[in-house]
Specification:
By secondary structure, this protein is of the alpha/beta class. The protein has eleven helices and six strands.
């Protein structure tokens, strides 16, 4: 199976992965925990409403996360602002002690729903068997992502670079190159696989790695001319 990897991408001596929605199904963990902590605030909301609620929190309020990465907000502040925006769409104002309770409950529950995608372990098994080192590079802090990987059964992903490791997030070249350094490879022989085509595929490619967009949802992007796969197992096919 590893022969297919080399045939598709040339000599590969290391693989780096994004974490959220690449190795770990973060959207499932987020939306499930959101519903658990918000049902009492939105009684009678139908399934379509819950799906909209989840989309607002996970996709339509990412500018708050960008402000966290820029140092303008704390992690909990951006999380609470996203929750308030999602609830506010349905006419619910979250403030005072209720906001602290909501945030604490969400922060406690979300890790319990973290799980790896089904295509992750077969790929890691194949890389282990071939002696190809791998690791993860994330736009979140190291310790938070370490707990997430371990909770998802991915403790074997021992090389982990977070934003606090080098002081910059993707797409700054330094964060990808630190992952390469820790693998002991070179950029030109290292794959970088992630679900964000700008931060993962384009950013890694600009840093000299072999960037690959993991497009699990079949998103259409006519302006993207790089490498694209719809499942991690495509690396081995």
């Amino acid at each position: 199976m590893i022969n297919a990897l080399h045939e598709s991408f040339g000599t590969v001596r290391g693989v780096l992965f994004d974490i959220d929605d690449t190795l770990v199904d973060l959207e499932y963990a987020m939306t499930t925990a959101l519903r658990d902590v918000s049902e009492h605030l939105l009684p009678g909301l139908d399934q379509a409403g819950w799906e909209k609620f989840g989309r607002i929190f996970t996709h339509e309020t990412t500018h708050f996360y960008d402000r966290y990465l820029a140092g303008e907000l704390t992690f909990n502040e951006q999380r609470l602002l996203r929750g308030r925006a999602a609830l506010g769409h349905f006419g619910v104002e979250l403030g005072g002690e209720d906001s602290h309770t909501w945030l604490n409950d969400y922060s406690r529950l979300q890790p319990s729903y973290v799980r790896a995608f089904s295509d992750v372990l077969p790929v890691l098994d194949a890389l282990d068997a071939a002696g190809i080192p791998y690791g993860a590079v994330s736009n979140n802090v190291h310790d938070y992502q370490r707990v997430k990987l371990d909770s998802a059964g991915l403790a074997r992903v021992s090389v982990l670079v977070g934003t606090d490791t080098v002081g910059v997030p993707k797409p700054d070249p330094a964060i990808y190159l630190e992952g390469v350094r820790r693998l002991g490879t070179t950029p030109a022989e290292t794959l970088f696989v992630g679900d964000n085509r700008l931060l993962d595929a384009d950013g890694a490619t600009a840093a000299g790695l072999l960037g690959i967009w993991l497009n699990r949802t079949g998103e259409l992007a006519s302006d993207f001319s790089g490498r694209e796969i719809d499942s991690l197992t495509r690396l081995l096919a």
